[in-house]
Amino acid sequence: PGQRVATNYRNQWSMVPGTFQTFALSYDMNFARLKSGMGLLLVSDVAGDGRLATTLGGVMYSYDITPTPDIHVRPGIGFYYLQHSIDYSKSIFGDQLTSDPMPPSSIQPPGNPAIRDIDVSTSLLIYSDNLWLGGTWDHMLQPERTFYGDEARTAYKVSIYGGARIILRGIILRPIEESITTAFNLKFQDQSKQLDLGLYWFREPFLFGTWYRGIPLVKTYPGSDAVAFLFGYRYGDWSMAYSYDFTVSRLGFGSGGSHELAVIYTFKVKVRKRYRAIPCPTF
User: Fold this and answer.
1) Residue 149 CB: number of other CB atoms within 10 A?
2) Do the Cβ atoms of 277 and 254 come closer than 8 Å?
């Protein structure tokens, strides 16, 4: 265990004009003697021809509590700075579409080009050698999300997640050669709900996985959304993964699906006592 740097790029619905793109960069470090972990996170989303963008930067901290030698309880907290921005010169409003030819501007006056706020999130994770269960409460301060100064705040978001790992070859606390891992992530925000179900097969140095996203048995929701396939490869301290989401909702395959690429580099540090890592997949 030591330090880790991770980068992510996601292109959602690649065939739709004004595609949704996400860039992420993170750094985290484990302090074994202090039973603590700290991390830095920078995320930027850009969507649509109007360049609607969200930028988030923050710092996170967690502490490892061991009520028994085999069970770890890890509470965490994150502090974030948020900025939402938009380019009105590239935006098209509804009243412009009702005229032929389309007027160069809307009668709607532009709002603020950018808004800024702060946010806080908390989490709790319980894990053992092969099981983990946790939850996160995001947007605790309900940051502002309107460009026109009216009352519009970001709704609370609650996530519940967990998983289990079955070791096929290898020994706990030593490099695992082959394993199967299942995972889930259930999210609630305002009137929205989303369930992700995942299955991974890892055989050094390769990882293959699949995820299903949707709530098919709840009639008030559209059902299945996407099925994602993931391929990962680990070479020394480097880990690289690519995933592709097949859109199975009514949006259809014409969306082009979604592409995501992740690259992770781990700086290994020698410690006197073997550290029990969270058993979730590396990628």
Assistant:
1) 10
2) no
Provide the whole-model pTM: 0.86
Tokens representing 54?
A: 């969200």
Strands annotated E in the chain: 2-12, 20-31, 36-47, 52-63, 65-68, 71-85, 114-127, 131-138, 157-169, 178-189, 192-203, 206-214, 224-235, 238-247, 258-268
With vertex at residue 139, the alpha carbon angle to CA 136 and CA 142, rounded to the nearest 5 degrees, is 155
For 120, the token pair is: 């806080």
Query: pLDDT for 215-254, tens place per residue?
Result: 765 555 555 688 999 999 999 899 999 999 988 877 766 7
pLDDT value of residue 96: 74
Q: How far is CA 10 from CA 4, 89, 245, in A?
A: 20, 26, 11
**Residue listed under structure tokens 């995820």:** 211
Helices (H), the chain: 94-97
Q: What are the strands, taking DSSP E only, across 13-143?
A: 20-31, 36-47, 52-63, 65-68, 71-85, 114-127, 131-138
181: which 2 tokens? 């891992």
Q: For residue 207, what are its two tokens? A: 């990882």
